[in-house]
């Protein structure tokens, strides 16, 4: 971690590695890491944590790409949603179980912690994030490659 | 920059399926007959575990929940002790306890300031735009907010020191732990424990000033809307004082009289599961009393777990400042047991003080520096049950293996399961007050949410980060069980 000061952008994969499709953010981050290895300004991390634990993870970066699973029920599994952090709820936390990325950023800023100025969210629509398993469903597996390409394009070219 | 495929859309994510579903059934007069919160089940747990070495269980189960990894890790580790019939060495036990109390303190702190904060620190009548974490910071001050975050970070560093990382610790082994405490590191942990006590005491002061000093809040806490006369369950030490890590389980009735005190290994004789035809959920109850329905009063078998329950079942706290706070709690709220669900927030602050004081005791126990942190088991494994008090209540892990220690059966009862019947009663009471003759009062979902939020139920632990809030959906059924209305709180 000695090179942290050099890194400007963080790609952060979120998810649970034993809950079937919920692992997709981690899988995307892993593949992105393999391709961006040794990049001087881009760090790629995976985390199974959520909520406020992300504060320590994202502090001090200029920009952030979050990769996560989502289940809106409005698009088919494998669909890739992309949004700006401003589209996420900022301050509606009612439980430590549900402190979101938007809230974490808002809190960090309020407390004077250096938070990324630019945040992009890549969320892959999933079919099954509730069954224990280490193999994502087919549609979600197929989406990994596309999501990886999109994340790398954003990371290299900016957003 | 163009998107590389038309499958990518810019789409604000506003809703997550599968969380927080409330079903309300009306009778033929249009009044509420039954209402309950549907908790999504984690599927395939036993199938996933079967055929794996039992030693993997502390790692597997710590992944079940992103909020309570250390509780699952510790319950699983204790189940392994039982499975291999081995007691941890004194240092192994002290290190487990130190890590566990650091976890309880940081989780409770998060809960007090983030969950309870918007309701009690900002205030239940404050405008919705202020009833959030930034509103809490506005009230307690930026410095106080920084103190909460910094203390939490240091506690997590302690957990990571022993477990490698805070979220999925690799610490517990049957008979002990994987890492000893280097005496050179002791001074900073002693400083942390002292700071933790100061932090918890300060939190209690904040609670006094902002909550107990406000008659409206006290009125809300003690109001009938949030009161249920049920039984309680929690773990106690040999002197019947609150214990998070080890001890016997004690159940008391709604008058505070002891129903039973039993060892974890006997839990099946005392805890049973009831299934209702209208739900796939299992509602636990106290087996010796039989299922008496969703009832309150002297004969009920419904019980609650979590901070309030722990204080209700115990005769006191094992540390001096927590004991003083415990006495004040029951004095102010009119004696034991306290039946006000919202008093969980106050009980949680008292438990913060206990967790911090216990950490301080542990880091001053010379035995904690012993390098002898593990006793290697030699017995043939068969079955093991482990129990801890998780932040949200009693957590049971129950495993069976073959003679090689390969899992053949695994079952968990989590805190939300233990609380399920009482949560159903709270949701039903709120719904009954808000729906009459088929007419639904405005703000139904917000008020129902408040009724179950004090329990902080775990609503399935996946895909949580987005959108980052708890979407609620209520379905209202008529007496023919046809959906007549759906309400969604985005």
Can you walk me through this structure?
- With 159 residues, chain A is an alpha/beta fold.
- Chain A has a single domain, classed as Rossmann fold (3-Layer(aba) Sandwich), CATH 3.40.50.1450.
- Chain A is 30% helix and 21% strand.
- In chain A, helix 1 (24-35) crosses helix 4.
- By secondary structure, chain B is of the alpha+beta class.
- Chain B has three domains: 21-40 and 418-489, no CATH class; 87-225 and 340-376, Cytochrome-c3 Hydrogenase, chain B (Orthogonal Bundle), CATH 1.10.645; 228-336, no CATH class.
- In chain B, strands 3-2-17-18 form a four-stranded mixed β-sheet. A four-stranded mixed β-sheet of chain B has the order 8-7-6-11.
- In chain B, strand 15 (435-436) and strand 16 form a beta hairpin.
- In chain B, helix 4 (90-122) packs across helix 5 and helix 4 packs antiparallel against helix 6.
- Chain B is globular.
- Chain B starts with 7 loop residues before the first strand and ends with a strand.
- The model of chain B is unreliable at 1-18 and 461-469 (pLDDT under 50).
- The chains are: A alpha/beta (159), B alpha+beta (490).
- Chains A and B meet through helix 2, strand 3, strand 4, helix 3 and helix 4 of A and strand 1, helix 1, helix 4, helix 5 and helix 6 of B.
- Strand 4 of chain A pairs parallel with strand 1 (8-10) of chain B, so a sheet runs across the interface.
Q: What's a quick, concise take on this entry?
A:
Chain A is α/β, with parallel strands linked by helices and 159 residues long. Chain A has helices spanning 24-35, 54-58, 101-110, 138-157; strands at residues 9-14, 42-47, 63-70, 80-84, 118-125.
Overall mean pLDDT of chain B stands at 87
* N-end to C-end Cα span of chain B: 31 Å
Which structural class do you get from the secondary structure elements of chain B?
alpha+beta
Annotation field: number of helices of chain B: 14
**Largest Cβ-defined interface:** A-B, 70 and 65 residues
CATH homologous superfamily annotation of the largest domain in chain B:
Cytochrome-c3 Hydrogenase, chain B
Q: Which percent range fits the helix content of chain B? A: 40-55%
């Amino acid at each position: 971690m000695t090179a942290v000061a050099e890194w400007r952008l963080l790609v952060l994969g979120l998810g649970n590695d034993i809950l079937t499709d919920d692992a997709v953010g981690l899988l995307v981050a892993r593949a992105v890491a393999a391709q961006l290895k040794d990049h001087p300004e881009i760090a790629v991390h995976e985390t199974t944590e959520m909520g406020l634990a992300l504060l320590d993870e994202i502090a001090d970066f200029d920009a952030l790409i979050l990769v996560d699973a989502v289940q809106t029920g409005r698009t088919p599994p494998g669909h890739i949603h992309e949004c700006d952090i401003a589209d996420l709820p900022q301050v509606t936390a009612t439980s430590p179980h549900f402190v979101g990325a938007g809230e974490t950023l808002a809190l960090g800023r309020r407390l004077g912690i250096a938070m990324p100025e630019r945040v992009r969210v890549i969320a892959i629509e999933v079919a099954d994030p509730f069954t224990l398993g280490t193999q994502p469903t087919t549609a979600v597996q197929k989406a990994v490659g596309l999501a990886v390409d999109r994340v790398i394009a954003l990371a290299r070219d900016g957003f | 920059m163009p998107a590389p495929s038309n499958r990518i859309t810019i789409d604000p994510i506003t809703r997550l399926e599968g969380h927080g579903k409330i079903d309300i059934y009306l009778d033929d007069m249009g009044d509420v007959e039954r209402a309950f919160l549907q908790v999504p089940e984690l599927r395939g747990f036993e199938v996933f575990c079967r055929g794996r070495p039992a030693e993997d269980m502390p790692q597997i189960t710590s992944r079940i929940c992103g909020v309570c990894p250390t509780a699952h890790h510790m319950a699983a580790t204790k189940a392994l002790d039982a499975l291999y019939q081995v007691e941890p060495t004194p240092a192994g036990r002290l290190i487990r306890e130190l890590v566990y109390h650091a976890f309880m303190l940081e989780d409770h702190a998060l809960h007090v300031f983030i969950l309870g904060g918007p309701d009690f620190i900002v205030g239940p009548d404050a405008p919705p735009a202020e009833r959030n974490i930034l509103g809490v910071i506005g009230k307690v001050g930026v410095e106080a907010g920084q103190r909460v975050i910094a203390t939490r970070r240091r506690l997590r560093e302690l957990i990571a020191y022993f477990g490698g990382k805070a979220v999925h610790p690799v610490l517990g082994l049957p008979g002990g732990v994987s890492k000893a405490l280097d005496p050179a590191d002791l001074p900073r942990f002693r400083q942390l424990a002292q700071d933790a006590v100061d932090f918890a005491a300060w939190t209690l002061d904040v609670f006094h000033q902002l909550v107990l000093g406000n008659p409206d809040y006290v009125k809300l806490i003690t109001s009938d809307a949030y009161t249920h006369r049920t039984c309680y369950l929690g773990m106690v030490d040999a002197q019947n004082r609150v214990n998070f890590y080890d001890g016997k389980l004690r159940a008391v009735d709604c008058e505070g009289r002891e129903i039973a005190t039993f060892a974890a290994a006997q839990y099946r004789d005392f805890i049973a599961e009831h299934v209702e035809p209208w739900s796939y959920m299992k509602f636990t109850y106290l087996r010796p009393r039989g299922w008496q329905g969703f009832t309150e009063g002297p004969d009920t078998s419904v019980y609650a777990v979590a901070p309030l329950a722990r204080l209700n079942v115990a005769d006191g706290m094992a540390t001096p400042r927590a004991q003083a706070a415990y006495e004040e709690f029951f004095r102010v709220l009119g004696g034991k047991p306290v039946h006000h669900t919202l008093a969980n927030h106050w009980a949680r602050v008292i438990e913060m003080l206990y967790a911090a004081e216990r950490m301080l005791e542990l880091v001053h126990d010379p035995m904690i520096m012993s390098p002898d942190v593990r006793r290697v088991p030699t017995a043939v494994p068969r079955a093991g049950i482990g129990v801890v008090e998780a932040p949200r209540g009693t957590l049971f892990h129950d495993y069976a293996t073959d003679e090689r220690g390969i899992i053949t059966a695994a079952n968990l009862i989590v805190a939300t399961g233990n609380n399920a019947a009482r949560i159903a009663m709270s949701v039903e009471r709120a719904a009954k007050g808000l729906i009459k003759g088929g007419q639904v009062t405005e703000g139904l979902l917000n008020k129902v949410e408040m009724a179950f939020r004090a329990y902080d139920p775990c609503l399935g632990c996946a895909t949580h980060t987005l959108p980052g809030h708890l979407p609620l959906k209520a379905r209202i059924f008529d007496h023919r069980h046809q959906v007549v209305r759906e309400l969604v709180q985005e």
